[in-house]
Records
---
Amino acid sequence: MERKNFLKSLVIGAVSSSVLVEACKKDADTATTTTTSSSGSTSGSTDTGSCSVAPTETEGPYPTHSPASYVRSDITDGRTGYKLTVKITINNSNNSCSALSGALVDIWHCDAEGNYSEYGGSGTQSTNYTSVHFLRGRQTTDSNGLVTFTSIFPGWYTGRATHIHVHVYNSSGTSLKVTQIAFPEGTGTALAAVNGYAKGMSGYTYNASDNVFSDGYTLETATVTGSTTASFVLAISLSVPA
């Protein structure tokens, strides 16, 4: 009996050891996977030290018809509103989120009344702006991955929060990312100060209810400083796979 109990204990011990080893292996695999995922994910903001790729968003319904035709840093093109300097830093998520120089960055957004250039005369935008190109432009990132535009603070239109569209290409013109920039909300923000311009904020769609941003907009939310009298500055870092 003693010998049988001894052999039984050996079998149980072997099984326990096997289970323990397998459990440790799974923990190790999980840790490895987590580490790989963490280091392999890509960044949206160097300010936060994260490394997450900027979300892909819709380009429409008002994309620029010929973006290469509007290489300019000042995109106001006669539109009036509170001055907004837009500073966008592009990082390469495939290279430890280092600055991506030589990238082409297009931006476009609506004017103070919520209208887009190059469109109009239809139900979605009654005012016809098909022959003008305001608030659209292209710049090439510098050695720090930075582009700077001079614009005005965007207004809003039904169903959307205030936003700016961004399309990033590599130096050869291959599309890398289409995304959008969200604005901080709440008391004391630039959005509150602008107060929807002449339209006010009645019927405004906030980020959490916006059909683009409602699934998450942390990586797309810019920092906006300044005032209506001193002008505003928007800054954001976006990481794209290049």
---
Amino acid sequence: MIPTTYLFVPGNRPERFAKALASGADRVILDLEDAVLPADKPQARKAIGVWLATLDKAALDAILVRLNDALSPWHADDLEWLSAQPVGEVMLSKCESAVQVAAVHARMAHSAQVLPLIETVRGVMGLNDIARAHHVSRLAFGSIDYLLDLDLPGPGFALDAAATAIAMASRAAELPSPVAGVTPELAIERVNADILHARALGFAAKLCIHPTQVGVVREALRPDAQTLAWASRVNSAWQTASDQGAIQVDGRMVDKPVVLRAQRILALAGLPF
């Protein structure tokens, strides 16, 4: 299944690594960027490298490392360190071009992937090239940094416009739906409202900063029983129909786009169709 929850852990807090992996999050992001002070970055790289060496393949597949952005003074050291690590996917902070993606991937195994984090206006302006770059797994939105870059007072139309552009670029490049930014507040109501709003803009996953957010996000994205039952009826009727041009389910016309939506719902719930 495509991951829906990504949990950040500071790279200089190795005592939290295993707990994060056991949190139920689909992916754990070991952070070398904002969560780690400049003086602590070398030690964070060392701690992450030591821990990665203890993991089996299944655990490694659930791990990402967030690198410092390409224009930062720490990026070159990140890339040198990355070359020796068994990391299958990294997140690139403040990604602004396909060239930056290629430079990161050049330090990794051919099968590895890069998850660009779009956090700036330049990143949004370069979305089409970034989304189509080789070895990109999907896109994520760094909404808090984007507010800062565009000097926005808070969420609103401008932020939603950037989010929609990310979702559209993802679809055009045939990537999975993108990953929504973090919610700084831990209150369940706020996290739930944010992921539902992001879902309405075309997102299907979320960055989390605390283990308690993981379950809230997963529950919010899970189709409810009524929706699943509808999707199952539609799919079953379509599969058994002698003429699949258009059929009726629950007294309503169903054609191929409706069936595809029903099948996406079943896939999101991990059900066969």
---
Amino acid sequence: MIMDPALMTYYERGGERTRLREGRGRLEFWRTRDVLLRTLPPAPARVLDVGGGTGVHAEWLAAEGYEVEVIDPVPLHVSEAAELPGVTARLGDARDLPVPDGDADAVLLLGPLYHLPERADRLRALREARRAVRPGGIVAGAFISRYAALHEGVRLGLLLQEEGRAAARTAMETGVMISTNPLGGFRGYLHDPGDIPGEFTAAGLPEPRRYGLEGAFGLYGDVDDWLDDDGRRELLLDAARQIECEPSLLGVSGHLLAVTRVQNA
């Protein structure tokens, strides 16, 4: 199992405990949950949550009655996910899953594909998902938009410094995003939404349906206020749902989800 040391340092700091549970990251969480509940096979289907982190999605999936196993390369993540009710967890690499053929009804890649800068590695991960899922099962992958670094650079003020502007330009031109945080920051690959279907088909998977998760709403300054109030949150989720597959708006979302059903053998 090979992982970038800087990326391991980033995740061993424990940020995944709260990233999707607090603040504006909750919009990504609620929208991912919303799409998966509409596309996954019904419980008690077996779900492999590959790169599932500390189990933020595994937790609610298990509560919904799914049989969930987290496979993640970070020891801290595995130990924390394994403590969740109804969730099992073990170390593993998305490019070489430690499971037999057709082991799951659904395979989720909600983190690995934006941490693999080489296309060959992303295709390996998608092929492994294809191998691990039963015929007729679901493969879902999460992606970060090619434009996310630029959007966040404005929102966070990072573009005020040349270093931040250079990182955003590199991400736009090549897809490779390297944080400027000297203590070890996020490193990843940012996808042009138009490139996602081709990676699925090159890995032997049917062309997926793409969903923009946050839409422009993730850039709003008052998004926390909407998420804090149950009624307003439902209105926000419904608004995002109405435009989630509009091709002209996919790149505005910070995160995208692509879902496909594997053909019967």
